[in-house]
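Lab notebook, bench 4. Still working through the backlog of constructs that have no structural model yet. Next entry is a single chain of 140 residues. Request: give me the C-alpha cells for it.
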Amino acid sequence: MSLTKEKPAISLTKRDNFGEIRINLNWHRGSGPTGLRAMFSSNKGVDLDLGAFVEMANGEKTVIQALGKRFGDYNREPFVQLQGDDRTGDISDGEWLHINGREWKHIREVLVYAFIYEGVASWDKTDGVVTLHVPDQATD
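Model written out:
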C-alpha cells in the first residue's frame, strides 16, 4: 500500500481486529562534516521524526512522538506506541510506530505524521520514506 500525491490517504474500514499495524519512517543521515569541523558545525545530518495524533472513541486526544518523550503505550490507551527515536538516520530499520489493531474499537482516529527535527530546511532535501504495514494488505 503506497501513499502518493495522487493517492494521499487510505480508509481503514472499522472492524474488530486489524492486528498489529506498523508504520516505518526510514532515511539516511546524509553527509555532515567530520573530525574537528563536526564538533563546531551546526550541520549534524538529517534527523526526521515519526509521530501520531490519536483520538480515542471517548473523545480523549493525545500526541505520540519522541519530542517530549511521548512514546505512548501499545497495551493500554492510546494503544499506539513509538518504538524509539532514531536521532541519526544511521539505524537501518528507522523509526517504528505500532498501533494495536485489536483495540481499534477504542480508537476513533489516528493521524500519522513525520517532521524534520533538524538537518535540512525542506522535505525535498531528504530521502525519507514512510511505509504502512497493515495485516492482510499488500504493500506496493
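Notes after review: The chain has a mean pLDDT of 84. Helices lie at 36-40. Flag for follow-up if needed.
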